[in-house]
Amino acid sequence: MFLMITFISCNSSNDDTEDVIIEEEEEEVVIEPEENANISWKNWYLSVPVNRGNGSATSIFYETIENNKLTAEQSKYFYENSDGSYTMYTKFTGFTTSGGPYALDDGKYCRTELREFWKGNQTTSDNWSMSTGTHILESTVQVVYCEGTGQTYVAQIHGIETEGLNGSPATVKVQWKNGDIVIEYYLKPDAGEDWTSKFDEKITIGKVDNEKFTIKLKVEDGKLYYALVCETKNIATDYTFVFDYVENGYLHNNYFKTGNYFKWNKDYEASAEVILYKVITSHI
Description:
Elements: E1 3-9, E2 18-24, E3 29-31, E4 44-51, E5 57-60, H1 62-66, E6 78-80, E7 86-91, E8 110-116, E9 128-129, E10 134-146, E11 151-160, E12 172-177, E13 180-186, E14 200-207, E15 213-220, E16 223-230, E17 235-244, E18 253-262, E19 271-283
Antiparallel strand pairs: 1-2, 3-19, 4-5, 4-8, 6-7, 7-19, 8-18, 9-18, 10-15, 10-19, 11-12, 11-18, 12-13, 13-14, 15-16, 16-17
């Protein structure tokens, strides 16, 4: 909680003192990585395409990551590098966050990806609304390689099924596509329809190839902005307006995601590898 102190001068001939009024401001939640760490793990959980015993992908929570308790199979998909970054490897296994095992070319994709817990509460009900405040993700990653059609999603704003609404829309997705960075975002659906990819737009915002870059997504007063930084490619795009979600009636609660969501399901061989260097989130 931050405090704002306002000094009001009283200019009477008998009193030259100053009154002090203390006003409380809104709570600001800024999730910075702890010292000597790339990420505050308590604010995320990790999904890897390993069967957790019920046919779904495995969820790995912060205690397991911080204590290096991943199994050997899980560690094929996620492991720490000597410089403190993390390798996020993935391929199609059939085990997804929506269930499985799915067959090849069955419309489902696999991922090694982080899902945000906004305030660090260990529950998927810990989500935020676009209708109030400012919400920012800054993710620094590098796509080492990406086979198949050369497409993987490295960041998202994902909606969750919210009371009175249908569906869990993948509202904003940042795709690495053969070196290009593409923003895919849902537009206002037709009357009576849900927010889905049936109504979406795609914009290419820069070419980073296999270099390290930082993608930033910001929702401020219901409006979506992006920014992109890649020093090697001399890219320094400041926040750029994309779409006003609240004005267009978007009501879903949301969470950020980042990692390696590999858009390939034609075989069990092709794979993709992303290095995660740093993640910062801010909710004001």
